[in-house]
Design goal:
The protein is α/β, with parallel strands linked by helices. It has 10 helices and 13 strands. The strands form 3 sheets. A 6-stranded mixed sheet has the order 2-1-3-12-4-13. It has a 5-stranded mixed sheet with strand order 9-6-10-5-11. Helix 3 packs antiparallel against helix 10.
């Protein structure tokens, strides 16, 4: 073979080798260039949003303030007892005591308070028509059995003829007092009294010829020295530091005069009102009433 032939053959071999090497490099470059794209495609969503388990939890409901007007004893004391239980349920109970309990219904009507706790159903019924109160009854909490108290006599049998007896002058409690005297055989009321209202004019038999002093309930404890006796609401007895066990006689546990939570019509479905009603009728409240007040205050649930 001539030198020219050999040179031509070598040159042809080199060219072929370069062509093969270039094709392999081109394939590798394409594969390498595809690899970063796949990596980028797999990674962006991994850091763009947190996993479902890390989503923020809903914020707690804000605390609600509930204003309840009350008589000082035992009503406000019972409300103070349930404050922690309501606090744990997101209700901040604010107890409002007015100098004149007669203003608790107007305060409720005017929206100054959310509920009140000082009255029984017969009293509410006796005033709501006249005053235009559109109220509804919530929880029935307790009965304060009214009793007959005297600084001068030790039993009803000692009452002399013509004895001077103090009774409340508001319609429902006056009826209540006269019914108690009737139950004790001291008077007899006329038949047909169905509206929880009566006055001494409705007495048809009075064998001891008792005389009656009709007065504001709150004044009766102070008036005892000037009377032969008086029928006094138990909350007023407690406020006056009179021992309720000294009553000559009192209502029994079947009294229809349970003290109630009173609310404006339409508010009975408010969650905080429902929680108030429930908190006032628990076994814990029943025990608190029995332990603290004994015969003076009786649970009504």
């Amino acid at each position: 073979m001539s030198k020219k032939s050999v040179f031509a053959l070598v040159s042809l071999f080199v060219v072929f080798a370069l062509i093969v090497s270039g094709c392999g490099s081109s394939k590798n470059n394409k594969a390498d260039s595809a690899s970063p794209k796949a990596s980028v495609a797999a990674s962006p969503s991994a850091s763009s949003s947190p996993p479902a388990s890390e989503s923020p939890s809903p914020s707690p409901s804000p605390e609600v303030t509930l204003k309840v007007g009350a008589a000082p004893v035992p009503h406000a004391e019972i409300l103070e007892f349930i404050k922690p239980a309501l606090k744990a349920q997101g209700v901040n109970l604010e107890v409002v005591i007015l100098d004149d309990e007669g203003q608790l219904n107007p305060a409720l009507k005017d929206g100054q308070i959310d509920a009140n706790y000082f009255q029984h159903v017969p009293y509410l019924d006796s005033v709501k028509g006249e005053k235009g109160y559109d109220f509804v009854v919530g929880a029935k909490v307790h009965v304060e059995p009214i009793g007959f108290y005297s600084n001068k006599h030790k039993s009803k049998d000692e009452l002399p003829d013509g004895a001077k007896i103090g009774i409340p002058n508001n319609p429902s409690n006056e009826y209540r007092a006269l019914v108690l005297l009737q139950q004790q055989g001291l008077i007899k009321l006329k038949d047909g009294l169905t509206t929880y209202e009566a006055t001494p004019k409705d007495i048809v038999d009075n064998p001891k010829k008792l005389t009656f002093v009709e007065a504001d309930s709150a004044t009766l404890p102070r008036a005892l020295p000037d009377l032969d006796g008086a029928i006094i609401n138990t909350n007023l007895v407690l406020e006056a530091k009179i021992d309720p066990k000294t009553a000559l006689f009192r209502e029994d546990a079947n009294s229809p005069y349970a003290n109630i939570i009173t609310i404006r019509k339409g508010d009975e479905n408010r969650e905080e009102i429902k929680k108030l009603n429930a908190a006032l009728t628990t076994p814990e409240v029943k025990k608190f009433i029995e332990d603290k007040y004994g015969v003076a205050v009786v649970p009504a649930f």
